[in-house]
Amino acid sequence: MKGYPSATTAIGEGTTSSIYLPPFRIDVTVRPGVPHIASRHRIARAVKATLDAAGAPGPASIGVILSADEELTELNVMHMGASGGTDVLSFPFFPPEAFPQHEHGTHGQRDPWVVAALKQAFALPPGLRAHLGDVIVSVERAIVQAEKGRGGQTGDVQWTAVEELLLLTVHGTLHTCGWDHDEPVEEAAMRTMEWQVLESVRRPGEAAEPGATSAVAER
After folding, report:
1. What is the pLDDT of residues 27-76, one digit of tens each?
2. 99 vs 175: CA distance, rounded Å
3. Domains of the chain (ranges, CATH numbers)
4. How many H-runs (helices) and E-runs (strands) does the chain carry?
5. Spatial contact of 197 and 50, defined as CB atoms under 8 Å apart
């Protein structure tokens, strides 16, 4: 399979590959010891599809970190004030007003000063990119949830660990783009967008609808 241009370097904990899918740069970091179940390029394509669907401004960059339960648990306690682990966390660098108001969204009326500031933030010199934020996913938890049939948006979908990992990545990227699911109408809109994105990057044989069973693994 033909890949995309990337530059792989060792940065901090793990190895980071900067994958360019214009107008975005997706920095995919894999922590040491994390199982390889999907290629970095496949993760990046799912992120790119999500950013396109959410109308993210470009050129811009976003970070995706593939990690394990221990790190997610620490971050969940530190930043969310929650006990225990979780499967994905997002750290957006811009407010929801930086992105187009999505259907059923609740961004409310935009402050003209905020809009002006955001335009200035993205008016960068050539070659520079605004960083949209970071998404960190527990590959360990994605594998367990898939193996136990607790995958998908409803927690009862039977599919592969790869599909679960892609869903979590898309979910986290949407959060970075101002999407949320606090209210039922928001949750329904977000779930619909997730399935639209997953369908656009789906490979033959993978689950196409909620609840479907799939036995395809990444190769």
Report:
1. 999 999 999 999 999 999 999 999 999 988 888 999 999 999 888 888 87
2. 11
3. 6-201 (3.40.390.30)
4. 6, 6
5. yes
